[in-house]
């Protein structure tokens, strides 16, 4: 009980992520600290004077007391959804529409159809969004605005913005879309278009830096757990040697696979993610591990993120084909086939139960937690734009809605899951699966 | 209002499907008519004396007033699940167990593990089923007894039946399993084993003749509809030209695909089933039809039963590879690729959204309607066995639980969906898809 | 094996339920037998010549080859939903609308708003129903046409039918509504309005005679089971002496309570329905029975249909208040309070978990099984009307869609659950609850 | 773009919430900042030197490098669940059990049955919890350990702890339970029982201070939204003047009502919570507001937290009955009746659709988001206890699992929803309902 003798942690200076503004007289924002974790080093560090590290902070979202756009009743706004589907898109679009109409009585809200392509208005004319037209869209999955990949054409966007006199532009999309959104923002600056450009980050992979989680992620985890349940039921009920393999999304980051596996409790025996090397055979190999599990309890279940084992597949590709051309190989199918071969090799037989939920994970309507988050994002996006902020993205950091400058957001996204962090350690503890990382570390120590 | 002048329809003689019995003094069963539809032919048939057709009838299940097995407290029973999973397996096993214990206080109910393999008791020792051990199994999908394909060994079954003194044997499984069950029954007859052998027909494809529907089918349709919804959301929300293709089970019969498509209402544009030839191109082709739909409304959704288009694929196989070896080709993947090619050929581009729900359709727990049905099946199976009937299967015909002699059941199973019947006609009416059948018919008439 | 010696059952003459028709030259319908159960009486009846009983038959629904209404492109139809909500209303209305438009290309389909009240078009102007406007209504619960109780005014209906030139009128509703529909039909006859009047029977209680089940019933049972689960979880997890009481709909018939209890398996300890007298205390009393259950396993769950125990409550009312005025007393609340008092009286204490799902049972969207049924009903209703039949109701009998003359339908509805039938006997067998009926019977015999 | 001229915010000193420890040489914990929101006041505050406020911090949970309990293989632990049910109880108990067994290989984990009562081991003998016995409990709602209210007897707890040699005691419960847990902790201290006592806060009302949210809350909001949907469907589909009233939990705080209403989007017209005075009539009255809504769109939906309007009911009680005895009156029923009376008074009529989901909100199995949270709580609880911390509760603060001293936790719990905070402001913005608070404030200003 000698806490008072312990070194008092100290907080460093605040480094504020400044958001650009259209106004020459911008409001003074409240702030939200991003870094809340202070590592202490006990007695061994008392002798040396520890330098407190900088604490990052973001602008807090709040209803602006002063509006940049003065006559809101003449304002025109536009909303667009880009890239793949994600639970909650309709909820965010709806919240933006309702806030613009109910709180600011703007003249018109346009829904751009089909992503960036929709700025070419001949093919996909913009919809007019009203409280009535968005009334029940949040009960449906997908995006009623429709979406597409790529297709940004700055000239067409410019033409659209001037033709429809848009002052506020809300863009829902992932990394690439955000980079595009920032180009639009810069273009508006250069050409003196007085438009507030706001991004709302969307990803089913939860791989956006800084924010607590991306919208729709809880819903996706719920759906992914249903697929794990399917594979479990099949593997568990089949003799001999049922093995379930579930392919989940996660090109760069394994959050979805890890969270779904963890949420499923002990139902999963192994998880393969992009952040941890995939080792098939040998003492740390996943194949003999799965075989041991099957021996113990009669069946096993393995979750594979689609981006796992890139290094493995590339090595195999080089060896086998002498070709190193970068393409994303289907790791889950590869693992499935290797499991079958491995059982065959050791004279056993397995019943493979392969489950690829694919679109069913992302086409769901948002669940309660995501619904609420989407409302907060939509409202925060409108508040920020009405205050005159621009070139920013809206997200939740430490349970507060904040504004993040787009360049800062895209600089470190996609983020990865820390294989030494809490989630992955709990995966290892729950599954007991071999950890190639640990070995690497201990080898380094020896 | 001249109904009285119409010819009075007449009912023909009753043809009863007689169930074998262990008893020399069998009970007199009540009957359930199987044929309830009387076709009338109006005035044009009045002059000719129409011969009334035979009316088939099955033994009605009921609680036996007289039991074949006298001292039920010494009775041993066994239950086994064979083949693929299906919603409701646990419910049926549970109902059998509860009825045996609660109504007849039998000494022991064995759960054979892992299908026919479980009769070799060393590898998979039988479980002892009690009301407590089956208490909540009906809330889980799959089969807690586990299952497998094939593996019937009459000697091992014989050894098991004598070793464990089994008097009642309940076998859940499909066509093949029922053929096996009848072999067991005949073996028992030959070797004077006094065992009532009862089959409970299980199929996710609903392709068993005579019965109203197979257990688990409602639940499977519900799950299949969820997959259709997924593909619809993706196709509808993607520009340009989103096309959803959903692969559903149905090797010989398209009931699941047809019911799920119909239940989804206008969400489906085309359904391909084994019963109707698949035509890809030309005026009746599914490819130009889907393209037209995409032109009209921006997207299209197509459901493909796994057994559809056999004749087409075989023809292609022969043409392209010069090989006619019978194997089930993956039609859904083939159609998916052909759609992409077709759009490409006509200078367009489509966004393919392929959904294969696979195991998720059959690993669900039974829904309310199926739960109830499973209870009735389990109870009926026990009643029939206790009455001394054997070599029969239990099913629902015209909403009554009946006993069907296994030879009669397997003679005409799998049954097919009538392409001139109500369901398929409603598919055609709902989707407006081209109907190769109709053309063939009209061609024949000309 | 002496079946051939058994008396051959014989079928009696067919009694066809003749449907009225607008045409002087009506089509000759196919028929569906309603009575499929043949009771046999074994040897004891061989000596006496048994008279075969009449077999009832209904007109089978089918797509008419000849239409009563010749120029369908000028036809106007109207649909109305009356009475309380029920899963599937939107599905039926949608199926009627789609069939009228897609198969007959009628000029106009009106949706009457708010039940009978909507015929007074000033307050609730009729909606125009198109394939587009009903596109996704089947994914929502309730009735998008809205509904109300009572309010039939023949003059207003007459004015509406003539003003809007309605030739086909589809009325969804219960007993009362059907009586009203028949009055409309008779009125049309009297006033020479050439209108086909079709009823589609709707009841959450499944208490309509002849038909296999009412639409929405499967969905309602599913929802009711969720409530039973809630009460079970609460009762089971609470010490000491958790008791769950679930109030379910069922004013005259206990089908919903019985089916939900049965489908929940052994989760329910007792079911109280209108068809079986409620006895509280004494050897057959439900109160000491529940207390015994609580002693045995720590908790108990009791389902109460809202119409149960009328005779008990009336007797109590008379005794206690000297007043015999007919009003439906809240039996579930009464039983709840009596359970608490009884435990108190015997020196124990119970934790009451009372669950009243009320509207949640009937406001669900239709599940897969009901969706399909609704499509068949809607299509069948249109087929019948187009053929010129009128004053009939559409339903499913032995898995076939048939037309039932409204007078015959309402004559014996609401029907009751047979307390000596299969369902109730399985309730008794599953729950082990005391059966006042049995006692009464045996007393009568002595 | 003159952010650099703005006053730089400053962070105040850190105030660490010190957790008690059994060890004389406690570990040095990492810290998590609790206060992340920095209010800035713009130019008006530049002249005055603003004092930076204290920043609170909690001990971060982490896997201890040094264990207080050395020979873990001889350790005995116990878990108990107290108070009402809540989604996720089984998940937390399971995570505690698995972590103790898998990571520390403790000798025995006891599950105390039925809350505090279970420490009297004769009536409710403790269960032995193993990885097998808890394998699938997380798929069920409720608490498989069962629970009860009250019943803490320190002597019995003492006897139990010594008899079973418990070193780690995990207590899941609400405010009252935590106060009891701290008494147990103090008792252990006083009597030199070397027991780590850990609380895991449980509340369906989300009214525990400091933490991001309480476990099970997301699941409860999901279930509550289902009830809102039921009332909406009924009110919307009924003519004339359908009004839905939904009673939700929330004795002291309206989080559940507010979150569920917000998550339901525009489906709710008014929300009554304990934190905001309920005004029935007059310009700010809820009754005329609801009537206006009904006039506008034909129906209205109102959510009532069970603890709302206490002041109103007490005032009415005093006036009408002259009695001021404190008892929680049924506000939702009161509001329901007043709505009916109000419509009656103004010569109109309403169709009341009253929905009380009661137990269905809290008896659900945990959804994906809550499942994950429960695993983190359970693991964190074990880590803290193994490190030798005691008298603390485990929770999530700014997305990190932390240890909160129980006295600090209970000092400010239940917390209230801030009626000037983001959530309530969004309720007002979404619903447009009158805000008695605003009026009061502006009145105060005038």
Automatic annotation (TrEMBL), chains A, B, C, D:
Residues 77-382 form the Phosphofructokinase domain. One of its GO terms (cellular component) is cytoplasm. Pfam families: PFK. It catalyses: beta-D-fructose 6-phosphate + ATP = beta-D-fructose 1,6-bisphosphate + ADP + H(+). Keywords: ATP-binding, Glycolysis, Kinase, Magnesium, Metal-binding, Nucleotide-binding, Transferase. GO terms for molecular function: 6-phosphofructokinase activity; ATP binding; metal ion binding. NCBIfam families: PRK06830.1 (NF005301). Catalyzes the phosphorylation of D-fructose 6-phosphate to fructose 1,6-bisphosphate by ATP, the first committing step of glycolysis. This is 6-phosphofructokinase.
């Amino acid at each position: 009980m000698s806490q008072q003798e312990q070194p008092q942690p100290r907080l460093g200076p605040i480094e504020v992520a400044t958001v650009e503004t259209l106004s020459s007289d911008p409001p003074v924002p409240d702030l939200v600290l991003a870094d809340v974790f202070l590592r202490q080093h006990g007695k061994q560090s008392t002798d040396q004077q520890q330098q407190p590290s900088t604490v990052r902070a973001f602008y807090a979202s709040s209803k602006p007391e002063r509006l940049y756009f003065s006559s809101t009743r003449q304002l025109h706004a536009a909303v667009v959804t880009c890239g793949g589907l994600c639970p909650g898109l309709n909820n965010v679009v709806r919240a933006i529409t309702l806030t613009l109409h109910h709180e600011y009585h703007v003249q018109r809200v346009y829904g751009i159809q089909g992503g960036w392509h929709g700025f070419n208005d001949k093919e996909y004319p913009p919809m007019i969004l009203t409280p009535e037209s968005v009334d029940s869209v949040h009960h449906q999955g997908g995006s009623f605005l429709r979406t597409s990949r790529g297709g940004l054409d700055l000239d067409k966007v410019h033409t659209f913005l001037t033709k429809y006199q848009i002052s506020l532009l809300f863009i829902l999309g992932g990394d690439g879309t955000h980079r595009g959104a920032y180009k639009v923002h810069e273009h508006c600056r250069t050409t003196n278009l007085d438009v507030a450009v706001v991004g709302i980050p969307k990803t089913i992979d939860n791989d956006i830096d800084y924010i607590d989680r991306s919208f729709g992620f809880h819903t996706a985890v719920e759906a992914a757990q249903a697929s794990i349940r399917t594979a479990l039921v099949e593997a568990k009920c089949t003799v001999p040697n049922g093995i379930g393999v579930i392919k989940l999304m996660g090109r760069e980051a394994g959050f979805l696979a890890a969270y779904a596996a963890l949420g499923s409790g002990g139902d999963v025996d192994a998880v393969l993610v992009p952040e941890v090397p995939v080792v098939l055979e040998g003492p740390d190999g996943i194949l003999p591990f799965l075989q041991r599990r099957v021996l113990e309890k009669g069946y096993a279940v393995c979750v594979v993120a689609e981006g796992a084992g890139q290094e493995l597949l590339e090595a195999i590709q080089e060896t086998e084909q002498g070709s190193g051309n970068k393409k994303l190989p289907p790791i889950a199918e590869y693992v499935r086939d290797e499991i079958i071969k491995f059982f065959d090799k050791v004279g056993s037989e397995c019943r493979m139960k392969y489950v690829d939920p694919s679109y069913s994970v992302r086409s769901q309507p948002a669940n309660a937690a995501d619904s609420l988050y989407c409302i907060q994002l939509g409202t925060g996006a409108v508040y920020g734009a009405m205050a005159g902020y621009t070139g920013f993205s809206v997200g939740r950091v430490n349970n507060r809605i904040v504004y993040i400058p787009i360049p800062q957001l895209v600089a470190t996204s996609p983020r990865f899951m820390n294989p030494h962090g809490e989630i992955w350690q709990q995966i290892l503890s729950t599954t007991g699966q071999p950890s190639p990382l640990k070995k690497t570390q201990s080898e380094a120590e020896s």
